[in-house]
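S2.1 Query sequence (Amino acid transporter)
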Amino acid sequence: MPATSAPPSAVRSTLAHDKLGTFSLLHFSLTAATPLTVIAGGVVVMFAVAGQIGIPLGYIVIAACLWLFSVGYTTMSRHITNAGAMYAFIARGLGRIPGVAAAWVAATSYCAMQASLYGLLGVTAEGVLASAGLTVPWWAAALVAWLLIGLLGTRAVDINAKVLAVLLVVEIAVILLFSASNFANPADGLSLAPLSPTALGGEAAGAVLALAVVGFIGFESPTVYGEEARDRRRTVARATVATIGILAFIYIASSWSIITAVGEDDVVAAAAADPTGLMFSLAGDQLGDAWGTIGRVLLLTSVTAAALSFHNTTARYLFALGREQVVTAKLGLTSVRACAPWAASLAQTAVGGIVIVVWAVLGLDPELHLFYYLGTSAGIGLLALITACAFAVVVYFWRDRQGESLWHTRIAPVLACVALAGVLFLSVLHFHTLLGVEQGSPLPRLVPIVFAALALLGAGWAAYLKRAKPDVYSGIGYGAKATLVQGTGDVKVSAEVARGR
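Output structure tokens follow.
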């Protein structure tokens, strides 16, 4: 049967094509990173947790590691296009069983990262509304945002990109304004000490690097939209590298500016005293109280935009698994008009809603337990996923360089493996410092165990598929090709997948 006569179910498993250019991909990746949230919360928390001023240096180190990773990662994206991104890369590089194991970790981590943002979103909205004389519980505000995000998640991907573009431009403009104001109002003059190798060290260095990685999470998302991108061989790579560069500049400049405005000797104490409000307090003192309020409002839009971006990423991972029938095929369905992964989007919306309700009913702290603990734990899972993907890139190109250069397929990927493995080791070793709990506490031990268990469950499921559903197993990691095999029975394509093309 020719591929053009595929049944309706195969057509409904197709994402929109040629919808996103480089800037649209940038909107998704930059908003997922939530630069304003990272600076207002993450950077200030890092000063308090680390007790030292080498935060800008930490961002330089992580930016260099991720840039090395992006060299092989984006090169591999030219040969593999799949909405499951790193799941597909690991399946094609390390094997189908590790690929499904990675998929379990990826889907859980992205879902947890998105759900964690509802905690910060609700608390921020509660504070902003309280300043206007309105009393609204955090969970009510979170549910309003949850409903909006769920609605946008089922719409065409280019509509989402336009919404994110507006929010992102305003967010970055305010960050640059606040940073420029900090540099213009130095406490003790401009110092290069924060960039000195001696400014970052000791046990806290691992926690700083882990938090720095979390600040960049989202940079990898352009590959998720490869099927929906225009000229994906160029746009995906451009957007990925540009995201790392832009975020590195923003994080280094903003963290350095806070040190400059507060002073080297006082910044740690100031961060510990006001970990979520220091940046806005500085803006209020320097530019007027109105700007501090504006910053808090924009923090609300920043978190909302990030939640929308992570919602779209999670939905596409679930869609990729459903399309290949690794999980229920219903998750692989797309809407006829928008070609959006509506079934996977609704599943992600349901999970987010359940998390908000559970936290509200149990009276758990939305900022500490939901945003910080869950979000940071998800970041560790994604760091492990990125590290595994780095090794998959090496193995994939070690078998065949696919006509690519030595730098893109061997040198940079191997260096990325060494660097990311080191960061992951330090992050897990000092995870208790990152969470602000005592060494030996159960939570820092529990998180790696949970992700290891997820990986083992995924591997076990893949082994089951290998025995019970060999046709499904053979299509793991092959995206639209796998759909074509399962939907049409095309022997030629099936053989192509079996040979590992």
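Residues 1-11, 487-501 have pLDDT under 50 and may be disordered. The chain is about 75% helix and 0% strand.
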